[in-house]
Specification:
Elements: E1 4-7, H1 12-16, E2 23-32, H2 35-46, E3 59-61, H3 89-94, E4 99-102, H4 108-117, E5 120-123, H5 129-133, E6 136-143, E7 152-166, H6 173-189
Parallel strand pairs: 1-2, 2-3, 3-4, 4-5
Antiparallel strand pairs: 2-7, 5-7, 6-7
């Protein structure tokens, strides 16, 4: 299967072209955050204050990278389990964030928010943090330095290999892939 090359920002028009199961190579600016950072961003929004970045059409990578070694842009940067951000993701989508990169299943409320706000959930390969870090060409700390690995960073990535797990219509590769596998396995048994 060919990989689609896409360049951020993740506009509404671009989101509509992506479908569950698409293999992509992602290039552009992404922001990093995990649960502590997401909690702080949602508290900021609840106070009526602006986020430290423009969330419009933004993509957030659920990662807490390790410190960079000499000569590196960033340390290992593998995905965090996305379910830890499920309580916060709909709030960030309602202010414009559209893309999410992580690993694992999402709650139905997140999928509903994705359908409402044309969100896309990309899966990154867990356990491949050192390889994914090679796609990161720039890293800049922009907020929440006190959170250490969970600080908010702005990254520039080139050709990051991802899979569309859930598209903006709510199609979920974890469900369709399982069904297809079970169907083909049942046919083999006959």
């Amino acid at each position: 299967m060919d990989r689609k090359k896409i360049t951020l920002p993740l506009t509404w028009e671009l989101a509509l072209t992506l479908h569950a199961g698409d293999q992509i190579l992602l290039t552009g600016t992404v922001y990093t955050s995990r649960d502590a950072g997401h909690k702080r961003m949602c508290e900021t929004l609840a106070k009526g204050e602006p986020l430290p970045f423009d969330p419009s059409d933004a993509t957030i990578y659920y990662v807490g990278p390790t410190p960079a070694k000499p000569g590196q842009v960033i340390g290992s940067a593998g995905p965090t389990t996305s379910g830890r951000m499920d309580a916060y993701a709909p709030t960030l989508m309602c202010v414009g964030a559209r893309g999410m990169i992580g690993k694992g299943a999402r709650l139905p409320e997140v999928v509903e928010a994705m359908k409402q706000y044309s969100g896309v959930y990309f899966g990154a390969i867990g356990g491949a943090g050192a390889l994914l870090a090679k796609c990161i060409k720039k890293s800049e700390l922009i907020a929440y330095e006190d959170l250490g690995a969970e600080a908010l960073r702005k990254l520039y990535v080139e050709d990051m290999p991802l899979v569309v797990i859930i598209d903006c219509e709510g199609n979920n590769l974890y469900e369709t892939g399982r069904s297809a596998y079970l169907h083909s396995h049942m046919l083999e048994q006959k």
